[in-house]
Amino acid sequence: MMINQAVLYTHLLDEMKAFYANSLNFPLTAASPRSFSIKVGESELTFKESALHTKPFYHFAFNVPANRFMEAKQWATQRVFLNIEEKKDEIYFEAFDAHSFYFEDPAHNIVEYISRHSDCPPSNDPFSSKSLLSIGEINLTTPHVRSVGTQLINSGITVRNNRPLNENFNFLGSDSAFFLVGAPKRRWFFSDRDSEVHPLTVKVNHSLAVALDKKGMLKITQE
């Protein structure tokens, strides 16, 4: 699976734009008074101004070249404070053969940099934001976990390792891109925040638009 674009919402548009474009040096691909977009390797991440009185936040991951994890971590620690879990600021996921670290942006999105050593290609260049390969994960938080998971499966996006759907949390996708489909009020790893339902739209495989509304209902359209 490939995540081409993710469209998220934020109540701190100006602060977020400054953070991603200036503090983290992401290339801006578009900007307007109510939205901006950054280039994340082969993907694009867009933030739009949220509705009044809402403070959306999400979890998403960026794929790091297989051989650049430690360099990426050193680069990040010069710009952000890394989140801690059990006194550690990184983790190795044996099931994915991957290392990750986490931090939060001004809107408290839980941002993960993940290096999947078996699925992400290496890079010969020194690490920078331009080194990131793509968006590797994004949450779909919904009270309708089974029905949302079933919709994704029916659209050709399968559960990792073809496992049966879990009622509370699932990885759906393949290679180096996944949807994290889970229920609300689940604590995000490397965070003290519980998952919440917020709208978003994700374009995958240059063919599908996956849209979650504010009630956690999913709509998938063919493009």
TrEMBL record:
Q: Which Pfam families match?
A: Glyoxalase, TxDE
Where does the VOC domain start and stop, copy by copy? 2-116
**Name recorded for this polypeptide:** VOC domain-containing protein
Q: Which InterPro entries does this entry report, sorted A to Z? A: Glyas_Bleomycin-R_OHBP_Dase, Glyas_Fos-R_dOase_dom, TxDE, VOC_core
